[in-house]
């Protein structure tokens, strides 16, 4: 019983020490040197070859790119422009482009905003972004803003792969220990619990690595469409042109304020008018002298 428990502890400690070591120090020899001689001997006797192929170390930087472009267009053209970009993504196929999400608010003739989120291969995104100016001009609009952000995931991927190798080696040791060192039921259950925990961490690491590698292999593109305030004129006569452009809005706001004032004041004006009418009806009676009675 003590021997089996000692072996379990040695395997777990070996795996933990490997997980906490730098990526370049993940080796079986280093793990054995860190353990006490007796424990290292028991752990080495339960070592099994790694059944999962070790992930390859990236040869260069692994960078994830995110692109954001904003397009102004007349309100009535935004839906057609966004639909054209979405259909281009769908036509390229899921291997080249995928639609992540889209939304649109507003109505034709008023202020309209829309958003299209895509994830695609760098080549497809470069091709689409290269034609955005032409697409916007064809719709009577223009590209008003462009932004590129990046995140270097090289260290995260390298560290994640190193932890995955360590956890895989630990899992293989536990599997061999469970198969070759029979013991009491409590000891076997302890090994199985540890094996389940390690397998869960392996699955989580594989999923995390897959997400990061997808971000590197593809890029995110967000297209924002809008109409309205971005049409302000520019140049020396811009203030005068803007003043004429704002006349309608100013008149509308003034009329709206007048309507609100009337709606707020009308009940009080009605009440005040009734009071004045009642007072005028009563005051003449109070001012009249009573008729003289004959003696």
Taking the alpha carbons of the first and last residues, their distance comes to 137 Å
Which strand order do you get reading across the main beta sheet? 2-3-5-1-4
Number of strands: 5
Note the beta-strand portion: 15-25%
Give Rg in angstroms: 38 Å
Question: H/E element string?
Answer: HHHEHEEHHEHHEH
Question: Which descriptor suits the 3D outline?
Answer: elongated
Describe this structure in words.
- With 295 residues, the protein is an alpha+beta fold.
- It has a domain at 236-282.
- It contains 9 helices and 5 strands; from the N terminus they run H-H-H-E-H-E-E-H-H-E-H-H-E-H.
- It has helices at residues 2-20, 28-34, 37-45, 75-92, 122-130, 132-138, 154-180, 185-217, 238-287, and strands at residues 63-72, 97-105, 113-120, 142-152, 219-226.
- The protein has a 5-stranded mixed sheet.
- Strand 2 (97-105) and strand 3 form a beta hairpin.
- Helix 1 (2-20) crosses helix 3 (37-45) and helix 7 (154-180) packs antiparallel against helix 8 (185-217).
- Mean pLDDT is 78; it is low at 1-9 and 11-54.
Strand and helix map with partners:
Layout: H1 2-20, H2 28-34, H3 37-45, E1 63-72, H4 75-92, E2 97-105, E3 113-120, H5 122-130, H6 132-138, E4 142-152, H7 154-180, H8 185-217, E5 219-226, H9 238-287
Parallel strand pairs: 1-5
Antiparallel strand pairs: 1-4, 2-3, 3-5
What is the gist of this entry?
This protein is α+β, with helices and mostly antiparallel strands and 295 residues long.
